[in-house]
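Subject: complex prediction, re-run

Hi both,

The earlier run crashed halfway through, so I resubmitted it with identical inputs.
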Amino acid sequence: MNLLIGLIFLAGAFAAVRAFWPQRQAVFGLIAGVTGATLLAVERAALLTLQFWAGLIGFIAILSALLVILHPNPMVSVLFLILNLFCVALFYLFLQAQFLAAIQVIVYAGAIMVLFLFVIMLLNLRVEEGLHLTGGVQRPAAFVLGTAFAGVLFWAILHRRDRPFLEPPGSAEGFGTARDLGVLLFGRYLFAFEAASILLVAAMIGAVLLAKRRLQ
Amino acid sequence: MRVDFFLLIAGVLFSIGCIGVLIRRNAIVILMSIELMLNAVNLTFAAFANEGQTMTGQVFVFFVMTVAAAEAAVGLAIVIALFRRRKSTDVEDATLLRW
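This time it finished cleanly. Structure:
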């Protein structure tokens, strides 16, 4: 756990270096390589545990999320967002949500991110000169509020009751499969499912109308 | 492994997305930060579903993904319309409704 916290701080420093001096790729790669080699030498026994891999995936997820918001080129941001989505899909596998992991990769990383890439290529955005950050009091306020929000979340998570709110009814066989999800989705949540389909149709028509050059 | 680890990761990801919405001016990056926040919420839903061993949380992840897809489509259409009018994706340039 201490290792993970150290890695997270390292990730923040790396992201800052990478975002504000984009040309120092060699230094970045060197530091990452040295860190990986040290990790391999010191913690070789840990490589077989699930905790280590979860920590590593969490590290990659946080690093890619930082690069999404701090990289000047929107195209690179999209690619790192895809990496982040893959990390979250692996977390779904840890959490016994196999079907969600599959649709995370297919729908999110496959369809929605292609939409983002398509729009960026269509608009032919140039690489911005530096980061276009908001000015005035908003930027420091954003950092302070974001950090404070993270602190409140951490406090709530670390001080929550140990017992889950719902009594676990025993680990069901095949928990998280498409069958379990489908039974709930087409049973108890059928109305919400149909409402979601109407929402998608409305969004599709709205997107076409908004992007149309002129209405007849 | 307890689910607190996943909750902490989701909290960090949500905060990063929140900061991204507040500090960037490029509309597409703001939309991507919103996707980050929705993903963090999805991860929290999945973690609690695993802890309580109930499928309801995963159904909610499904619906959040639907809403995220709709939001991305409409948001990107607005960005295209804005770019056609203003030749920029900077949210500071959209000032018609600003007081």
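The domain at 4-88 of chain B is CATH 1.10.287.3510 (Helix Hairpins).

- K.
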